[in-house]
Amino acid sequence: MNITIMANDKKKELMVQFCTAYKSVLAKHTISATATTGRLVAEATGLPISLFLAHNQGGHQQVDARIAYNEVDMVLMFTDPNSKDPWENQYTMRTLLLCDAHNIPVATNLATAELLILGLQRGDLDWREVIRSRRQY
After folding, report:
1. Domain harbouring 15, CATH code
2. pLDDT per residue over 29-66, tens digit each?
3. Is residue 60 part of a domain?
4. Domain count, the chain
5. I need a labelling partner for 61 at 20 to 30 A (CA). Which of 42, 53, 69, 72 fits?
6. Cα–Cα nearest to 72, from 43, 52, 58
């Protein structure tokens, strides 16, 4: 599965800790991330991660485009619910709407991310493979 990770500046350390804890699960999949988050996670875990641009340089839009083209199977996007930045909130909402439109599992917090990762480990998300293969024709 293709998993994309992103994290607000205040949540980057939490994302690093999460990916470290679930490294064995994530290692079986293809991981991509916005630049800073991906670099931090790769350095901490040794996982190979394809990097997009930084969030403020268009990385969020790159992720959204991959979602729209059905090239992402799961999004782990740790957000800051206290953010007062209207642009960041707008980017987050657009990504959530795209995930909803394309039936892509998405987590915006640690609790939901753990549920998705444990479901992924059990095979509960294998249906994404069927959806992706149908859309390639």
Report:
1. 3.40.50.1380
2. 999 999 999 999 999 999 999 999 998 889 999 999 99
3. yes
4. 1
5. 42
6. 52
